[in-house]
Amino acid sequence: MTRSSRPILAALTALVLAGGLSACGGQAAGQDGDALSQVDYVFDNALTVCSDIPYEPFEFRKENGDFTGFDVDLMKEMADRFKVDLDMIDVAFDDITSGKLLNEGKCDVAVSAMTITGERARALDFSSPYFAASQVLITHKRSGITTSLDSIAGKRVGVQADTTGETYLRDFAPSDTEIVSYHSRDLQRALANQAVDAIVLDNTAAGPVVDNNPGTRVAMEFNTGEQYGMAVRKDGNVPLLRKLNDTLTEMRDDGSYQKIYDKYF
């Protein structure tokens, strides 16, 4: 089980080093100071954020339809400090991780409880990590699944497509485990309808899922050493990336990050 953390941590270490180099390398590449400090937004006076919603408690809708959640509140605070409006857009997760929406100029930044990985870093530029997480397996209480990964042999397990949970299960689950990929909004429905014996998702999202699905429980947790990051267009928005990192540091130092964290966790 401990093997699972190594590739993710290695990719994260390489990414942080690469991010530091790219953030410092603009002037060496011939860019001037103004170019490195001027943030160009997709829309004037607005920070446009792409996110795959819902994924409670990170991003979901209130009863009145407004977006809320840890990621949403974090970006609201960022936008306030940038002195711009916040515009949240609900999109498919794989359109974020592929870099498609950022490259097409649909949004300035993507924030969606997204783990930093080496593969994703080839399509996106990540901020400094802003959240640590791991993966859990949620199952029906009478499924026969125990705390051992071997107990899902022959079982049907749902995962969110293009996530580290899917990667982990395909790497380490018994060969006769049936792994079924879903979009995030369909994953909990599959569990509730017993279309699957279990699902895998981030540990921080497990509480609301178990609460909303009586008769389910967390069977096991996988220590994957994951870190979430905000993403901008690859090699195309160094000023915004720096601004995100600097503001995240400020928010940690002045306690506002902790205040938002305590609200949801």
Automatic annotation (TrEMBL):
GO terms for cellular component: membrane. It comes from uncultured Nocardioides sp. Residues 1-28 form the signal peptide. CDD domains: PBP2_peptides_like. The keyword Signal applies. InterPro entries: Iontro_rcpt_C, Solute-binding_3/MltF_N. GO terms for molecular function: ligand-gated monoatomic ion channel activity. Residues 46-265 form the Solute-binding protein family 3/N-terminal domain. This is Extracellular solute-binding protein, family 3. Residues 46-264 form the Ionotropic glutamate receptor C-terminal domain. Keywords: Signal.
